[in-house]
Amino acid sequence: MPVLARTGNEAMAEAMRQINPDVVAAYPISPATEVVMIFSKFVADGLVDTEFVAVESEHSAMSACVGAASAGCRVMTGTSSQGLQLMSEILPIASALRQPIVLCEVNRALSGPINIHCDHSDTMAVRDFGWLQIFSENAQEAYDSVLQMIKIVEDVKVRLPGMVTTDGFIISHCMEKIETLEDAEVKTYLGEHKKMNSTLDLTKPITLGSLDLQDYYFEHRMPMAQAMIEAKEVILKVGQEFGAKYGRPYGLLEKYKLDDAEVAIVAMGSTCGTARVVIDELREKGIKAGMLKLRVFRPFPAAEVAEVLAGVKSIAVLDRSDSLSSQGGPLYTEVRSALYDAKTKPVLSNYIYGLGGREINLEDLRQIFSEQKSNQSGKIVYFGVRE
Amino acid sequence: MKKNMGWKELPHGDSSPAGTANEFKTGDWRSERPVWNKEKCINCYFCWVYCPDASILLDKDNKVAGIDYDHCKGCGICRAECPVKPEKAIVMKQERS
Ligand code: SF4
Ligand code: SF4
Predict the structure, then answer these.
(1) Which CATH number fits domain B30-94: 3.30.70.3270, 3.40.50.1000, 3.60.15.10, 3.90.226.10?
(2) Which of B4, B12, B14, B22 to mutate to test the interface with A (most CBs of A within 10 A)?
(3) What ipTM did this prediction achieve?
(4) What global pTM score does this model have?
(5) Contacts of A99 in chain B (CB under 8 A)
(6) How far, in Å, are A4, A176, A270, A279, B22 from residue A140 at the CA level?
(7) Which residue ranges traverse the bilayer (chain A) (predicted)?
(8) B1 in contact with A, Cβ within 8 Å
(9) Is the pLDDT of residue A40 over 80?
(10) Is residue A327 within 8 Å of A241, Cβ to Cβ?
């Protein structure tokens, strides 16, 4: 396997080069610009066969993706923050049309105030649009998950679009060592893109996305809900097969020293890497600390989360975004809901942290772990904000 | 009464058969109706090309033959595009309220 030094953006672009999608329609935005910029260079250099559509906005980018996917193409794009929001009129249409589009999303704070750094508020804002969402801890995971996402979304049971996310600048712009697959391996791994019967075909004309009122709208939403339920098994199967073939297995979530843990955090993305160091330190001091790293946020693996967390005494859920709902961040409310039927309920608190790229370092995580001893369940902390 | 299909019976991905708009009579939204004048018409097809609702009717010899009032929305594009001078071959008339 080739070993390369790559930033998160370069890793995603490399995966896209190897996937060689039929169509990429994209518009640049920090910190995701490089993903499609590097890819457009691959197009210019003739390294891929892709039709690259340089559109005038993200709204057009996603619209072009929907059009190309309707024609039966394998389609990819990339964006971030306001770009994802500008796509958001079209995102739920892509999922309703059951189009397996894959989006490389680089997590960045939403305006306002305007900010280009990492938090998860952009991805969380579109969490209920019928897109699968996979978070990455580092560039390696981003590369592997982009390849897997193609497999997952094209599975006949799923056929929903999916986004793989990295954390803006922290992953997107930091260089790491990654192992990649050979080009030929990727080709065999992915296989041919299979068209479904909802594809435009001159010989069998159909109507896509017609007006759908009280009598049928509900029935058209139901298959999306069912596909999201079934996606969980497919993500697991694809992640395990990837592990068996290439040595890096993936699941819906990852337990880090969680089995016997008394205090734990739940986190997503790059923060998990920092947390591992702190957990190792605490373990050396005899404190039973652990972590649940959530990889897949949509579909939300509620049963699996409940199963692995039910025995832990005290848990802090770390949200790198705030849903401004007055009852905690989006990850926290999901985890809390997942634990509703658990026999033994942990003390569950919420730490909203790192908004707009505010650093979360070892000392911060040590503090969060140390506060677990005295936390009341339901406590919501806006961690590190100045009064 | 016709029973509506359940979600498991629906075709994949929000698709439906082509041409179903034909069965859906939407012409009653119109506030103005285009009126075509056979005598003035030079059969240039401009109205037929530009009509966004495929509401310009052709006869069996593919000659312009009138307006499909079941589907025409009264947008007036056909009238605007009609090149006949000084009076156009399509004029817009107020619908009765
Ligand atoms: S008024 Fe509009 S919809 Fe009606 S026939 Fe003319 S162009 Fe078509
Ligand atoms: S645009 Fe005018 S002249 Fe041309 S076909 Fe239509 S009605 Fe006739």
Answers:
(1) 3.30.70.3270
(2) B14
(3) 0.85
(4) 0.92
(5) 13
(6) 10, 8, 12, 22, 53
(7) none
(8) no
(9) yes
(10) no
